[in-house]
């Protein structure tokens, strides 16, 4: 496996060895670059971030950066793909960890809030991007929303006796409501207490509807 050199200060003052050289395998180097890109793109936005910013944050030269990514947009999309993968895995896990529907709904909502609270950079990269008019970005986010809804609908349809299309519509409404709630509290820099209160309120509203979804409303 190929590797790249990283030169980083580490020796104490007065030492003859001003730097040590460490090696990272190619896949680990790529992951490091993506992780730093997520953080910097989320903090500065796409348009205000340069490849120099990410190279400097990663302690590599620009040529090394370009060995992994064709350009800034390519790196941005790789970072977005990484965070979408992470979020999708987190969100759908609660659906398969319980057979109790209330726990499933509560788990999905909790996972949304947990991701938004503990991975603010990733959350902003996905949902607060300054290039949401880019087709490739829009396509990825729509695909994420569709995949989440499909997983929810796959559980909801047989449990509530709904046609799959109707379950999909309900699932999209649910994820839209949760996303809106997280955007409000995360965007306002709310405290942990405010986040917890918003999570509880969102669950009450969601479960209040889903728990009686099979009733005859005609």
Describe this structure in words.
The chain has helices spanning 26-44, 51-57, 62-68, 72-92, 101-118, 120-127, 135-160, 164-187, 192-210, and strands spanning 3-9, 19-25. The longest helix is centred in the last third of the chain and has 26 residues, at 135-160. The chain contains nine helices and two strands; from the N terminus they run E-E-H-H-H-H-H-H-H-H-H. 68% of the residues lie in helices and 6% in strands. It is elongated, with a radius of gyration of 21 Å. It has a domain at 84-210: Tetracycline Repressor, domain 2 (Orthogonal Bundle). Helix 1 crosses helix 6 (120-127). A two-stranded antiparallel ribbon has the order 1-2. The protein is mostly helical and 218 residues long.
The CATH architecture of the domain at 84-210 is: Orthogonal Bundle
Which descriptor suits the 3D outline?
Answer: elongated
Report the β-strand fraction as a percent range: 5-15%
Figure out the total of helices. Answer: 9
Separation of termini? 64 Å
CATH C-level label of the domain at 84-210: Mainly Alpha
Averaged pLDDT, please? 84
> Which fold does the CATH topology of the domain at 84-210 refer to?
Tetracycline Repressor, domain 2
Oligomer: single chain
User: Based on DSSP secondary structure assignment, what is the total number of beta strands?
Assistant: 2
Major sheet: 2 strands, antiparallel
What is the SS-derived class? Answer: mainly alpha
CATH homologous superfamily grouping of the domain at 84-210:
Tetracycline Repressor, domain 2
Uncertain ranges: 1-21
Spatially, the strands of the biggest sheet line up as 1-2
What is the CA-atom radius of gyration, in angstroms? Answer: 21 Å
Output the helix-strand order.
EEHHHHHHHHH
Q: What percentage of residues falls in helices of 4 or more residues?
A: 55-70%
